[in-house]
Amino acid sequence: MERPKQQALLFLLGAVLIGAVLGYSADHLMQRHPHNWADRTTMYDDIGLTPAQRTESDSIWDATNCQLSLVYGPVRPVLDSIRDEGGRKFRALLTPDQLSKFQARLQADSTRRARLDSTRRARGDSTRHGRQSNSRQDACKK
C-alpha cells in the first residue's frame, strides 16, 4: 500500500477510535440520572466532610447535574446518532470472525450489567444502574 493510503487509513482508524472514546465518555458523563449517592457518601466519608458540608455539597452537585442535563438534553440525540454511525462504520470494518467476537463481547457486557442490576434489586437498592431514583431527580424539573 502506498504511504498516503496508509496514512489515510490510519487517520480514519484513529478518528473512529477517538469518536468511540469520546462517545463513550460523553455518554458516561451525561447519564440521564444523578450519580450514585453511595459513591458520594463514600467520598464525603473519605475526605471527612461535616454534616453541614455534606448538605451544601449535595446542593452544589445536584444543581450542577441539573444544569448539565439542561445543556446536554438538546444535543443528546445528535451524540447518539454520531455514536450509532461510528458503531456501524466500525462493524463494517470487521471481518465476520471479528464481528462475532465483538458481538459476543457486547453480549457478555450486557449480561454482566444485567447481573449487577439484579444483585442491586435483590439487596433492595432502589437505584437504576447504581443511580438514585428519588426526589432529587425532581429538583431538576422545577
Keywords:
mainly alpha, 142 residues, extended
Mean pLDDT: 79
The main sheet comes to: none
Question: Which strand-content bin applies to the residues?
Answer: under 5%
Helix content: over 70%
Count of distinct structural domains: 1
* Total helical elements: 6
Shape assignment: extended
pLDDT < 50 runs, ≥5 residues: 126-135
| Strand tally | 0
The helix-and-strand class reads: mainly alpha
Distance between the termini: 59 Å
- The sequence of SSEs as H and E is HHHHHH
How large, in whole angstroms, is the Cα Rg? 20 Å
Q: How do you describe this structure in short?
A:
With 142 residues, the protein is mostly helical.
Describe the structure.
This protein is mainly alpha-helical. It has one domain. Helix content is 77%, strand content 0%. The chain contains 6 helices and no strands. It has helices at residues 3-29, 37-47, 51-72, 76-93, 96-123, 135-138. Residues 126-135 have low confidence and may be disordered.
Secondary structure topology:
Blueprint: H1 3-29, H2 37-47, H3 51-72, H4 76-93, H5 96-123, H6 135-138
Helix pairs in contact: 1-4
